[in-house]
Structure formats: C-alpha cells, structure tokens
Amino acid sequence: MAQIHRLHIQDEAKNCSADQFYSFLKTERTKLPQVFPLGFKSVDILAGDGKSVGTVRLSKIAMGTPNVVTVTDKTEAVDDESRTLGFSVIDGDLLRMYTKFEYKLTVTPLVTQAGDKQSCLVEWFVEYEKENEDVLNPTEYVELASNITKTMGSHHDRMA
C-alpha cells in the first residue's frame, strides 16, 4: 500500500494584504508569468471560470534551465471566509513521479508593527504519494511555493 506524505511551509508576503494575495491566486493565476516570470512560463484556463471549484488550469513551470514542467490542476476547494484554496494535480509531468499530488493554501492577515502596512502569512500544505520509493520528495515544488509567496508579496501593486 502506498504511503501518503505531507509537507507544510509558511512564509510571509510582506506589504501585501491577505485579501490581495488570496484574490490574486483565486481569480488571476493566469497573470503569474507576468509577476513571476522565472517560475512560470504560462498559466491557461482549460475549463471553468478561473475562480470557482471545478476550474482546470494548465501551467508551464520553469524547474531549472532548460526544464519546463507541465502541470494541470483542478480547483477542489474555495473558502473565501478562511481564504483557503485547494487543488489537485490531474495531469502532467508531476504525475509521472507521484500518483497523487494535492496542495492547499491558506492566507492569514498580519499587521506590521508600524500598523500602516499589511502583510500576510501564507501556509502551503502539500499531500502526495510517490510512484515508487526511489522518487525524491518534491522539495523543488515546495521551494517554488515559497518563492511565489515572497515574489507576489513584493509585487502586490501588480495584483490590484
């Protein structure tokens, strides 16, 4: 029987409100290549409205030069009250290594000590099942999630 593995990371998106960050990832993920061109080559909506459960997106992700990885994911959960989004990978290169790959993120508001600029805490939860025990843990994808958080926080004006 295959073993389910879980990873959790959290990072602060500075100078970016929780609502801005959450709204961007919920409704404007197709703009990720503009905000984070080193990580994303393209993000296209294949099905759905781009913001609701059932939306399917195809992403081309730069995972080291010249490697580009394709990932098709489906939005499985949207909770505006808790600013939580859940996704499952349904096709693409990741499924060659992992029989299951799901991720969820939760965005929580933070107020800086100065009180005049907001930041937010972004928590990423990854659940995966390896194709076999020789497959490495998906650390580069966890690093990508961390870089998304940091990059989007510094580019919050593009999210408005």
UniProtKB/TrEMBL annotation:
<dbReference type="InterPro" id="IPR023393">
    <property type="entry name" value="START-like_dom_sf"/>
</dbReference>
<dbReference type="Pfam" id="PF00407">
    <property type="entry name" value="Bet_v_1"/>
</dbReference>
<dbReference type="InterPro" id="IPR000916">
    <property type="entry name" value="Bet_v_I/MLP"/>
</dbReference>
<feature type="domain" description="Bet v I/Major latex protein">
    <location>
        <begin position="2"/>
        <end position="157"/>
    </location>
</feature>
<protein>
    <recommendedName>
        <fullName>Bet v I/Major latex protein domain-containing protein</fullName>
    </recommendedName>
</protein>
<dbReference type="InterPro" id="IPR051761">
    <property type="entry name" value="MLP-like_ligand-binding"/>
</dbReference>
<dbReference type="GO" id="GO:0006952">
    <property type="term" value="P:defense response"/>
</dbReference>
